[in-house]
């Protein structure tokens, strides 16, 4: 009984050790994805932010145009 | 031909931006040293240091040399340099028993020189720990001074530790701010014109330029935040330039609140033009003066105007200056689209109410 519990304790310890080591390697800031290849992905992310900023802007402009179009159509119907 | 005369700056901006993105992303970084496998070396021992480097071609070089340097003047040549592969070398240093100065622990920088890649420096590479109770002896540290360094010129961007490839963000993050400043300057110009002439078309100009400038500023904040996360350690470190840029943007955002709060007309045009002038004038101390009076993580702060040296060398300028022109022309194009749209809206309102 005692042997079994010690065994399971040892196993738990091993699993915890493995998990923590794995987490340390995985979460280690030096080894993460954004820092790989000389942190080039940071530059890629910046370019993507600018690109999506322009996309959001386009969407905004399109909505404004749709609004104007609708106003224009309503005016046409009134006259 | 007529279309070209009207649209030339759009084509120019696109051509420049294609160049900026291509050159900014494709030109390689100069070779550099990334790290060593040791933190401390005991004095009096022989130590083999594995050096990890970036963009180097050690196997193409014939002559490899490495030095440890203390306090600029004391140098120690590696007794043996072994090439592991293109990106790794092993340098063996026989550290003398006695430290060159009376201090027990000293940070040494590492200098590697090859006849293919040229010379590279890793500041604060290892610390050397001296033995207790020994007198200082600078003798062995003065035998082999650093000399005959090789140099190879290629079209490449500077290698900076911590920054690494993100030095390329200089062409995408920094021009957002330069573009924003130029766009706001133009906006202030049109605000003055509106106040002097009362022509309502200038109100649409001011609105479109303020909107474009604010978008550029927001993009600058977000690209800066992600850059800061992986170089300074967090998205927002309360750096003086970050904070002042955020305040500037908030002031300009209030312009849109003010504009939405008032009904369209001559009065709104005048009030918002005056507010734009206030916002522009407030941005001058916030962006140009206060950040220079404070220590900052940004380059070019703490009294030193502009930035240069290895943060912006001549190779980088061949991409950086076009980047500013390109992004500014491109955002002027954007503001022109907004201008025409808000002009259409204004004219339709005028027609309905007259």
Arithmetic mean pLDDT of chain A: 78
Low-confidence stretches of chain B: none
In total, how many domains does the architecture of chain B comprise?
2
Distance between the termini of chain B: 39 Å
The radius of gyration computed from the alpha-carbon positions of chain A, rounded to a whole number of angstroms, is 29 Å
Main sheet of chain A?
Answer: none
3D structure, described in words:
Chain A has 79 residues and is an all-alpha fold. Chain A folds into two domains: 1-31; 33-79. Helix content of chain A is 87%, strand content 0%. The longest helix of chain A has 43 residues, at 36-78. The mean pLDDT of chain A is 78. Chain B is α+β, with helices and mostly antiparallel strands. Chain B folds into two domains: 10-14 and 163-353, no CATH class; 32-142, Immunoglobulin-like. Chain B is 48% helix and 18% strand. Chain B has six helices and nine strands. Chain B has helices at 2-26, 174-197, 201-231, 240-261, 266-293, 314-353; strands at residues 32-36, 40-42, 46-54, 64-70, 74-77, 80-85, 88-94, 105-114, 118-129. Chain B has a five-stranded mixed sheet, with no helix packed on it. A four-stranded antiparallel sheet of chain B has the order 1-3-7-6, with no helix packed on it. In chain B, a hairpin with a 3-residue loop joins strand 4 (64-70) and strand 5 (74-77). In chain B, helix 1 (2-26) crosses helix 6 (314-353) and helix 2 packs antiparallel against helix 3. Chain B starts with a helix and ends with a helix. Chain A binds chain B through residues 34-35, 37-40, 42-43, 45-47, 49-50, 53-54, 57, 61, 64-65, 68, 71-72, 75, and chain B through 21, 25, 29, 54, 163-166, 168-169, 172-173, 176, 215, 218-219, 222-223, 226-227, 229-231, 334, 337-338, 341, 344-345, 348, 352.
Label this structure with key terms.
heterodimer, A: 79 residues, mainly alpha, 2 domains, 2 helices, 0% strand, elongated, B: 354 residues, alpha+beta, Immunoglobulin-like, 5-stranded mixed sheet, 4-stranded antiparallel sheet, 48% helix
């Amino acid at each position: 009984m005692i042997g079994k519990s010690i065994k399971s304790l040892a196993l738990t310890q091993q699993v915890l050790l493995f998990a923590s080591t794995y987490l340390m390697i995985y979460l280690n800031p030096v080894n993460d994805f954004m820092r790989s290849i000389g942190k080039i992905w940071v530059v890629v992310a910046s370019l993507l932010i600018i690109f999506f900023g322009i996309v959001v802007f386009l969407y905004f402009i399109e909505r404004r145009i749709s609004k104007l179009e609708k106003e224009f159509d309503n005016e046409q119907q009134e006259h | 031909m007529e279309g070209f005369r009207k649209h030339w700056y759009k084509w120019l901006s696109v051509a420049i931006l294609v160049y900026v993105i291509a050159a900014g992303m494709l030109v390689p970084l100069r070779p550099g040293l990334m790290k060593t496998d040791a933190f401390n070396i005991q004095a009096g021992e022989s130590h083999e240091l594995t050096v990890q480097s970036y963009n180097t071609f050690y196997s193409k070089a014939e002559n490899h040399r490495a030095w440890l340097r203390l306090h600029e003047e004391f140098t120690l040549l590696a007794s043996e340099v072994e090439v592991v592969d293109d990106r790794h070398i092993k340098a063996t240093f026989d550290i003398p028993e006695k430290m060159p100065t009376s201090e027990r622990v000293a940070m040494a920088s590492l200098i590697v020189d090859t006849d293919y890649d040229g010379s590279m420096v890793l500041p604060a590479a290892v610390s050397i720990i001296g033995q207790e109770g020994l007198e200082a002896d600078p003798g062995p540290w003065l035998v082999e001074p650093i000399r005959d360094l090789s140099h190879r010129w290629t079209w490449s961007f500077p290698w900076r530790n911590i920054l690494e490839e993100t030095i390329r963000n200089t062409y995408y993050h920094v021009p957002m701010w330069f573009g924003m400043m130029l766009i706001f300057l133009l906006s202030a110009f049109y605000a003055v014109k509106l106040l002097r002439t009362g022509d309502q078309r200038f109100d649409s100009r001011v609105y479109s330029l303020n909107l474009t400038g604010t978008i550029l500023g927001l993009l600058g904040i977000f690209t800066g935040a992600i850059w800061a996360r992986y170089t300074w350690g967090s998205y927002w470190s309360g750096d003086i330039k970050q904070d002042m840029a955020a305040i500037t943007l908030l002031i300009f955002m209030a312009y849109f609140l003010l504009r939405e709060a008032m009904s369209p007309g001559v009065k709104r045009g005048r009030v918002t033009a005056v507010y734009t002038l206030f916002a522009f004038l407030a941005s001058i101390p916030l962006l140009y003066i206060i950040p220079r009076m404070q220590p900052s993580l940004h380059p070019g702060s703490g009294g030193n105007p502009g930035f240069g040296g290895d943060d912006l060398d001549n190779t980088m300028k061949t991409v950086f200056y076009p980047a500013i022109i390109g992004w500014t022309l491109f955002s002027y194009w954007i503001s022109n689209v907004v201008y025409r749209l808000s002009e259409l809206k204004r004219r339709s309102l005028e027609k309905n109410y007259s």
